[in-house]
What we know:
30% of the residues lie in helices and 46% in strands. The chain has 2 helices and 5 strands; from the N terminus they run ααβββββ. Strands 1, 2, 3, 4 and 5 form a 5-stranded antiparallel β-sheet that branches. The radius of gyration is 17 Å and the shape is globular.
Amino acid sequence: MPKTLLASLATALLLTACSAGPSANKAEDAMLVFVKANGSDDTRLTKFAIGKCEKGDGGYNCPVQARVLAMNGRFDEDFNGVFTFAEVGGAWKVIGVVSRTL
């Protein structure tokens, strides 16, 4: 009985950890793909930070703060907003923009 209880608790903890949205690294990777798709191939993100994600329709709404560098340094701007992330095909992707400031 104690082994069954321990296994159930471990499973519950794993499911809870998985339901909090993307990790900071996964979110940064997804955001870089998103920014490159909507801008320049030489885009880089610096000072990336993700806040607490909240479950929303179809994904997780997460506040993001980053600095975007692109176009050989000619573009260097803060990029902040709330973006919707979802796991698609085993990878996290930005699937929507709730709000954005540039």
